[in-house]
Amino acid sequence: MLRVLETKTVTRLGSTVESPVDVRFVCATHRDLMREVDEGRFRADLYYRVASFILRIPPLRERPAEIPALAHTFAQGRPFAADALAALLAHAWPGNVRELRNAIDHALVLAASGTIELAHLPDAVRGAKTDRDGFFGALEDIERKRIAAALDQCGGNQTKAAALLGMSRRALVYRLSRWRRDQSK
């Protein structure tokens, strides 16, 4: 990589001929690379090859004035209820613009047409907590429902249910015992 950045040539595996390349590298990070170099966690020679032009873009939480315009763009001009827009502005956006876009995509699925309401936004943006903090809790709920349906379909036979779900019987038994243990707490 260092040689490609320095000489703008590559040598194919097994070849001795260097081929010129005309590429531009765009690197992005949320870390202070100079501090990482000073602390020995990032190679100085690589830093000086990629740091020819540095553009610092503040995180979305530091530029809340942009949130409504971005949200309207991602929502393709659909209107937002006042409380939904207030929730967007109040959220810290640790995932930056990518998280905002995903939140709007989520809302668009739930709001088939018309105004995007607060209830259409993801729990994390609304400030609500689910049983196991959002995404992973929702995945576990889906998994529990699939396992319960497979067990019902197979008359309680764990071996057949596991095969139907595409998992080993041992994995199924583990999940069932873990859920029973969690319920007893």
Write structural notes for this entry.
- The protein is mainly α.
- It has three domains: 49 residues, no CATH class; 67 residues, Helicase, Ruva Protein, domain 3 (Orthogonal Bundle); 50 residues, Arc Repressor Mutant, subunit A, CATH 1.10.10.60.
- The protein contains ten helices and two strands; from the N terminus they run αββααααααααα.
- A two-stranded antiparallel ribbon has the order 1-2.
- Helix 8 crosses helix 9.
- The longest helix has 19 residues.
- The radius of gyration is 25 Å and the shape is extended.
> What is the ordering of alpha helices and beta strands?
HEEHHHHHHHHH
- What is the second-level CATH architecture of the largest domain? Orthogonal Bundle
Q: Which structural category fits the helices and strands?
A: mainly alpha
Could you name the CATH class of the largest domain?
Answer: Mainly Alpha
Distance between the termini: 52 Å
